Amino acid sequence: MSDQPYYVPESSKLPFMMAITMLVFIIGSAQTVINLDNPDSNSYLILVAFFIMLWTVMFFWFRQVIQENHAGLNNPMLKDSYVYGMAWFIFSEVMFFFAFFFALAYIRNFAVPWLGGEGEKAISNILWPGFEASWPLMITPDQAVFAGPEQDMSLGTAYSNGGLAGVLGWLPLWNTIFLLTSSLTVHIAHLALKNGNRKQFNIWLGLTLVLGYMFVIVQGIEYYEAYAHMGLTLNTGIYGTTFFMLTGFHGFHVCLGAIILTIMLLRSLKGHFTADDHFGFEAGSWYWHFVDVVWVCLVAFVYVM
Question: CB burial class (10 A; 0-12, 13-18, 19+) of residue 259?
């Protein structure tokens, strides 16, 4: 067996700084949510500080890793650890979304029917006698039984006649086209890089980014339509909560994937990557394919069914 010494980098303060950064993120997020109804609160500035710290630490950390790779310090064993690290990271993201999809399925198929008096646990109906289970659940059970704020139920009626995709028109369809097409373009870019054609790689990767950012723009339009014209908000029952939780987290991951690929394009324009040494881009493309697969599942379970 050949001797493959594992490269151990020099001592660095960057991991410690990243830990401090994540602590600022937790504090900033909590304070921002707590003070949402306080217009005089400046808690959001803690989140602004977090993003500044995050990008600063990531810039210096990534730069150090790139310099080490260009210096030839990354041996095959270390490169394998990058592959395994990215694979486990994507697996953790799969479990992350699985938890949310499972929560949606549990609420829709078990919790709501039980509250409505159906199934073997129909005793739960004693909590809200008179509550009728329906999906999508646009109001909370207490609002359904007792006098509460007026709710626009037109969305629920329209949903039952054609799914949320029908209510929102062509927006989900366009976003599906954008993401599925971008998955193809990033694959073509990968093939171009393997063949040593940097010009084609840059073109196809650039097209992937255009499609990705178009997805984000269309989702912003979708959120505006939901809030301004449809009455679908975070306060619109459990359905509004699960809808924005799933689409919001996925939109965040699309933004993250687009940022990763943007950095890869900038690196390529500087002459980085070769036909046999480009794992930075390869890892980003894996992540982008993962985001696309999650979107297909999200469309099926949130918009259509």
Answer: middle
